Amino acid sequence: MGEIDLNRDLVCVLFPGIVNNDEKALQCLGGIKNISQVYSQPKKKRLGLSYQPENPYVKRIFADTQTAAGVLLKVRVKKKKVGSDVQREIISTSIFGRVKKIYRFESMCDFQYMPVHREGKGSVQCLLDKILPSGRDSIDVMSTPCPLLIVPNSFTRSDKPISYAYTDKRYGEKRTELDDEGTIHRRLRVERGRPLTRHEFNLIDDLPTEPHEYFLKQKAVRLSVYSALEEEFQIVKKLFEERPIWSQNQIRYQTKIKLSSVKVILPCLSIYMRNGPWRMMWIRFGYDPRKEPGARFYQTLDFRLRHQAGVHSMVMTRDRIMHYKKSDRVKHNPKQHLGEALLGDDINEGAVYFRPGMAPTQRQIYYQYCDIKLPEVEEMLAIEPPPGYLCHHKRGWLSPNTDEICRDHIFRYVKLTLLATQNTDLKFEQGESSEEGSNSDDDASTSSDGASNSNT
Q1: DSSP symbols for 243-303
Q2: Of 93, 202, 337, 398, which is most buried, counting CB atoms within 10 Å of its CB?
Q3: Domain presence at residue 77
Q4: What is the pLDDT of residue 3?
Q5: pLDDT tens digits for 65-111?
Q6: pLDDT reported for residue 59
Q7: 219 domain residue, yes or no
Q8: Domain end among 128, 162, 196
Q9: How many domains does the chain have?
Q10: What does the DSSP assignment read for 414-441?
Q11: Nearest CA to 63 among 114, 32, 28?
Q12: pLDDT at position 308, please?
C-alpha cells in the first residue's frame, strides 16, 4: 500500500463514453473554464456535454450532481505474458484523495440534428461551414443559395425516458349516463381532484370573495404536519392588507417563505388572474381591480429582452434557469414533501424589482408597474385616468402604448448597465441559440398561460 491522502477533495465526472483523448473529452464538456463555472455555481448551472462541440445544432445532455463517498485509487499493474495467457501483478496502490461529488449523465441523448447532405449514392458531407457565417464573409453570401436545415423549435420536456401505454383506453370509464337529448355518452376522463385557482379575466363576472373549501382543507392538512404554517399564513395575510395585489415571486422575496408553503397559503387569501391586465398576479378576496383606478400601479408588464447591441446573449432564459434548478421533471416521492418547507430557491431582487443600474435575472420577466423604480415610468403612473374612463380588457386603467413606452425605458437602462459592467456570469458561449417571443398582446397572453402552470 502506498501513500494515503484523504485531505484532498476531488470531484468525479462519469464521462458517457470511452475516453482515448483527454483534450477532446474536456472540449465535449465545454472546456476547463465551463467546468469551473459549473463547479463554482452548483445551484445555478448544470454540467452539459456535447459530442460535437463545434455544432450548435446538437442538443446537449446534462449531468446531475450527486453526493458520494469514495476514493480515487492509483494502481500500478505489471503485465506478464505466459504462453497465450496474460498475468497481471499489482505492484503498488496509492490513494489520491476522496470524492464527495459526482456528476452522472443519465438523461437521453437521442435528439441530435447534424447538418449533413448526401448527393446520390456518394459520401455524406458536413454542411456546417456553409450554414454558419464565419465572420469574414462578404455581402454576396446573402444572395448565394444555402442548404436547407430545419431544426425543431422544441425538444422533449423530460430528461429521462418515460413509460407510455400506446392504447386508446388511457382513462378508465367512470360512468355511463344520458345527456339532455337522451343519447348515451361515456365520460372517459376522471374529473379533476382539485378545483382550478386560475380566473379568466373579463369585465362582466364578479370575482370570488372567499376561498374554495378544498384549499382550506389542504391548509389544515399541511398545518397538521408543519406547525409554522400558521405564522407564515399571518405574515402573507398582513401583506395583502397593505397591498391588494401581489405576485408569487414578490411574496417569496418579501417573506422568504418556501414555495411549498406559499402554494398552500395563496389560494386561501387570493385568486390567481390567468390573463388580462393583472395576469399572473394574486388578487385579494374582496378587492376588484376593475373598479379601482388605483389598481393600475399593480398591473403586469411583460418585459422581454431584445437582441439589440448583443445584450440578449448576456442574460439567461427562464427555461435555462429552470433547467439548472430542476435536474429532472418527474414526480417525487410523497414522503419528500414533508421536508420541502426546509428547502427552496431564494428569489433575487432583480426578479421582482427594476431600478437604474440593475440587470434582469432572465430574458423575460413579469414586473408590476409599481416595482419599476424609474422616474419616467413613475411619472406616467402618476397621471390619473380621466373622469368616466372604464377599465379596458387588455390595458386596464393605463393609456394606449404605455407598455411599449415602459419597455423602451427599461431596455435603455438595461443596455447601458450590461454594456458597462460586462458581467461575465451573465454571458453565454457563442453559438447557443435562443428564442425570443414578441411583445404583442396576443403572444404575451399565450406566454402567460404557459408560465401560469409554474405558479399554480
Answers
A1: -SEE-HHHHHHHH---HHHHHHHHHHHEEEE-SSTTTTEEEETT--GGG-GGGGGG-EEEE
A2: 398
A3: yes
A4: 57
A5: 888 888 888 899 998 888 888 888 888 888 888 898 899 988 877 66
A6: 80
A7: yes
A8: 162
A9: 2
A10: HHHHHHHH--GGG---TT--------SH
A11: 28
A12: 65
Kind plus residue range of the DSSP H or E element containing 82? strand 61-82
Residue 190 lies in a domain: no
How far is 100 from 70, CA to CA, in rounded Å?
A: 7
Q: What is the DSSP letter of 60?
A: P
332-361: b (≥16 Cβ within 10 Å) or e: eeeeeeeeebeeeeebeeebbbbeeeebbb
Classify residue 418: in a domain, yes or no.
yes
Classified as helix, coil or strand, 95 is strand
Quick one: 302 and 376 in the same domain? yes
Q: Are residues 150 and 245 in the same domain?
A: no
Q: What is the CATH number of the domain that holds 52?
A: 3.30.200.160
Task: Give yes or no for a contact between 39 and 11, defined as CB atoms under 8 angstroms apart.
Answer: yes
Please report where in the chains the cell 393600475 appears, as a residue.
296
Ranges of residues in the chain with a pLDDT under 70 are 1-5, 110-112, 137, 153-154, 157, 164-194, 196, 308-313, 316-345, 422-456
235/113 same-domain check: no
Q: Are residues 99 and 20 in the same domain?
A: yes
Find residue 365's DSSP bridge partners.
303
Of the chain, the end-to-end C-alpha distance in Å amounts to 58
- Grid coordinates of 258: 418556501
φ and ψ of 251, to 5 deg: -60, -45
- Map residue 83 onto helix, strand or coil: coil
Range of the domain at 126: 1-81+88-136+143-162
pLDDT at position 183, please?
Answer: 54
